[in-house]
Write a structure and sequence with these properties.
Layout: E1 2-4, E2 12-19, E3 26-32, E4 35-39, E5 41-44, H1 56-62, E6 66-70, H2 71-76, H3 80-85, H4 89-92, E7 98-102, H5 105-110, E8 115-117, E9 122-125, E10 132-135, H6 137-147, E11 151-153, H7 165-185, E12 191-196, H8 202-214, E13 219-222, H9 231-241, E14 251-253, H10 259-266, E15 272-275, H11 277-283, E16 286-289, E17 292-295, H12 315-319, H13 322-330, H14 334-361, H15 364-375, H16 379-385, H17 388-402
Parallel strand pairs: 5-15, 6-7, 7-11, 11-12, 12-13, 13-14, 14-15
Antiparallel strand pairs: 1-2, 2-3, 3-4, 8-9, 9-10, 16-17
Amino acid sequence: MANDRQGGSIPIKFEIVSQDSKTFARRGRLHLTHGTVETPVFMPVGTQATVKATSQEELREMGYEIILGNTYHLYLRPGVEVIKSAGGLHKFMSWPHSILTDSGGFQVFSLEHIRKIGEDGVVFRSYVDGSYHEFTPERVMEIQSAISADIVMAFDECAPYPCNKDYAAEAMRRTHEWAVRSMAARDPEQAFFGIVQGSVYEDLRTESAQFIASLDTDGIAIGGVSVGEGKELMMKAVEWSVPHLPTDKPRYLMGVGTPEDLIDSVMRGIDMFDCVLPTRLGRSGSLYTSYGRINIKNNRFISDFGPVDPECDCWCCGNYSAAYLRHLYKSDEILASRLATYHNLYFYASLMERIRRAIECGQLTEFRKEFLAKYRRRQASVHDDLPRQELHNDRREKKRYSGHGAP
C-alpha cells in the first residue's frame, strides 16, 4: 500500500510494508526529497538548527534519518534570510537527511502574555529583542518554504489544557480555516501535513479529524496533546482521531513522548513522533535505561564503575562508567550533557528499531509486555534482585557469543 501525491513533482511517498494483526500498528517507509525514513519513527527536536548537546554526525551514527526544526525560533534567530542565503536549513546546519518543520503555532500560543490572536493570524513579541511580529498562515508557509524543509506543517491554534469546550471549538474552527489557507499557500515542492485539534472533547476531535482528512494533505498530525492532560486523555485523543484518518497516509503525534507513550501510540496506529524529553532530561542528569529512568546524580552511583545501562551498546555505555558520568554532572562539566544526550537518543533510536522489528514479526504485543516488565522495575530493585555486576557479566557474555566482543 502506497500513497503518492498527485502532480508534477512528488515530494512524498508513503508505503506500508507490514501491519500488526493484533493492533493498529503499521511498519512503513516514508520517501522524501532527502531520503527514506523507516516508520514508526522518532524525530529528535532540533529547535534552533541543532539537536541540543549533540552533533549532526552523531545523529547519523545513531541511525536517525529525520529531525525536527522550529519555524518560530528559526524565524527569530538566525532569521529567514540567513537560512535562505545558506541554501536552506539542510546546508546551513550540514544535515543531508530529512527535516520536518512545525509551524510555530505551539510556541506562539504558549506565549499568552506577549501575543494577540485574530482571525487573520497572531501578533506576538519576540523573546529575543521584544520586537513585534505577525504570523499568518501565508507568512508561516512562506517561512517554511525559505527554510526548505522536507515536511511542513499547517499553521494551527493549540488550545491549552484545561480549557472549556467553547474555547476548544473556537480554536479548532480557526485551525481548520488556517489549514485551508496554509494549503493554498504551500510550496508544492514540500510535503504538507494538516493538524487535528479539539482538546479533550471527543466530538471535536472527530469533527477535526474528518475535516483535516477531507483536505487530502500529504500526511496528518494530531496536535494539542501532551500539554498537561495526562496519558489517559492523550490516548483518548488518538483513539478518537485515528479511525477518521486515511489509512494510506502517515500519522504524526506531535510532542510525544515517553518510551511507554511511543509503544502505546504505535499500537493505536501512529507512525511519527517528536519530543524534547530524551535531550532535555539528559541535560539534567536523567537517563533512560532498560530498567527504567534513573537520576545519575544519586549517591548510589558514586562507586558504580559499570555502564549506565548494562544492556546498551552505545559508545557512552561502552566507554564510560556511571560513576564517571555522575562525577561530570557534580562538577558541572559540559561533557556530562554530551554523554547523557547521546545515550538517551541512542536509547530512543534503538527502541524504535525494536518496535519496527516487532511489527514485522507480528510480535508487537509480546514486545510491549516484555519491554515494560523490565522497564518499569525501579533501579533499586535491580540492585536487590539482579546486581549490576551480574548485569555487566550478562552484557559481556552476550557480546562474546554474538561476535561483538573478544572472548
